[in-house]
Amino acid sequence: MTQLILDYLIEGIYYFILALIVLIFLSQLYLSLPRKFRKKYIGTPDFKTLVILPCKGVDYTLDENLKSLKDQSYGNYKIMAVIDSEDDPATDHIRSNGIEYVINECQSGGSGKVRAIATALRKFDDYDAYVIVDSDVLADRNWLLNLLRPLIDESNGISTTFPYFEPKNGFWSKFKTAWGFVGVGMMQSDITVFGWGGSLAFRKGLFDEKSLNDFAEAVSDDMAITDLCRAREKKVAYVPESVVTINSPDDWHVFREWSIRQTSLLLSKSRNAYYIGILLYGSSALLFIGAILLSVFVSAYFLVLFIPLIMNEIKMFKRLRSKQAIYILVQILLPFFYVWNLVVGSKTKEIAWRGNRYSLYK
């Protein structure tokens, strides 16, 4: 009798796990289906535009990046770099490329980048539109034109894009490339789209004195501007035609610090992101493990459980500029790394960013 009960219990556990795996499979299959982003912004903007370029230190390919920002097809704009002091090593590069600069004068409690942006907005208040761009960004000639187009429609509060991380080192720089595709996926949904501060445009009226003062106390410019846009009941416009490149020579140490910083910044604003991420990527990792165990020990028919992974592999290879076999391994490892990253990020209370440390919970 005891053995019979034990047999029923084991059988019940087996079918429960099997049902759970099938449910995860169906949800992952749905998420892996290809989706097309159909929005395309048209028109010819004519905003008098200030491109704000916060600089600290010498980024990889900095001179190439600065030259690309100067060589834009859009004519009515001016670049203004913002540095903490003329002793900064970026200053010589800024001067040699003929770019004007000002010294960061904001004394608020925000991050160095946020204070640099606030300085420029206060000093130069006679422009129709403002663009924030990171110094590690390499832009094509139509980047600025495409980025400004959505602002013709006043229902759009900010216009943004997302970068392609071009690997310039070994495995972890390639891992970062694939990691970036998650950001692209978020941008393609009206629910999860956000203003990426590495390439972001907005009209003059987005900030008033109070909101600028509040902004100057923020750590993340991305989240602060996105929150302000939504508070104004404006849309966030994603412009894939304005994609920029970030040349990334990341090793493990650099990538680890960068990925944890990005995740902890997100979690500091939205705790729900942690639970959603654990559910999404944890189930993906569980499906992979379940597919291996069931196909090896139960039946080869369970190889069908690998379909979502294969579809995600195909989707990733379509996005890659350089197709390499190593990305097959990268795609397999991504869900496991995301779960680890979310756990570490949820426990991170302070981040390091360009030589400074910032508390995420004041």
UniProtKB/TrEMBL annotation:
<dbReference type="GO" id="GO:0008120">
    <property type="term" value="F:ceramide glucosyltransferase activity"/>
</dbReference>
<keyword id="KW-0812">Transmembrane</keyword>
<keyword id="KW-0328">Glycosyltransferase</keyword>
<keyword id="KW-0472">Membrane</keyword>
<feature type="transmembrane region" description="Helical">
    <location>
        <begin position="324"/>
        <end position="344"/>
    </location>
</feature>
<dbReference type="GO" id="GO:0016020">
    <property type="term" value="C:membrane"/>
</dbReference>
<dbReference type="InterPro" id="IPR029044">
    <property type="entry name" value="Nucleotide-diphossugar_trans"/>
</dbReference>
<dbReference type="Pfam" id="PF13506">
    <property type="entry name" value="Glyco_transf_21"/>
</dbReference>
<dbReference type="InterPro" id="IPR025993">
    <property type="entry name" value="Ceramide_glucosylTrfase"/>
</dbReference>
<comment type="pathway">
    <text>Lipid metabolism; sphingolipid metabolism.</text>
</comment>
<keyword id="KW-0808">Transferase</keyword>
<feature type="transmembrane region" description="Helical">
    <location>
        <begin position="12"/>
        <end position="31"/>
    </location>
</feature>
<keyword id="KW-1133">Transmembrane helix</keyword>
<protein>
    <submittedName>
        <fullName>Glycosyltransferase</fullName>
    </submittedName>
</protein>
<feature type="transmembrane region" description="Helical">
    <location>
        <begin position="278"/>
        <end position="304"/>
    </location>
</feature>
<dbReference type="GO" id="GO:0006679">
    <property type="term" value="P:glucosylceramide biosynthetic process"/>
</dbReference>
<comment type="pathway">
    <text>Sphingolipid metabolism.</text>
</comment>
